[in-house]
Amino acid sequence: MEYDNTLGYYDSHAEQFYKSTVNVEFTAMQERFLEKLPKGSYILDFGCGSGRDTKFFLEQEKIETTGSTKGKMYRKC
């Protein structure tokens, strides 16, 4: 099946993608990423997928805003 754009792909696979990524344990990688940021940095999570990383970085008070507000993946996030 062909998709005209990325949003079309994720709309068609939103439920499957969400279920396969939302509970993946990624804390060690997220913490390593935060260690590399200068103090006072913010993150723009553009293409936030299932919202797993957005949730973590919000809890760390590091997210300024998220990306797209369109499509089924955004509603899942």
Short précis:
The mean pLDDT is 78.
Main sheet overview: 2 strands, parallel
How confident is the prediction overall: mean pLDDT?
78
Low-pLDDT sequence parts:
none
Shape: elongated
Structural summary, described in words:
The chain has 77 residues and is mainly alpha-helical. It starts with 5 loop residues before the first helix and ends with a helix. The model has no long low-confidence stretch (mean pLDDT 78).
List the helices and strands and how they pair.
Layout: H1 6-21, H2 27-36, E1 43-45, H3 52-59, E2 63-66, H4 71-76
Parallel strand pairs: 1-2
Keywords:
single chain, 77 residues, mainly alpha, two-stranded parallel sheet
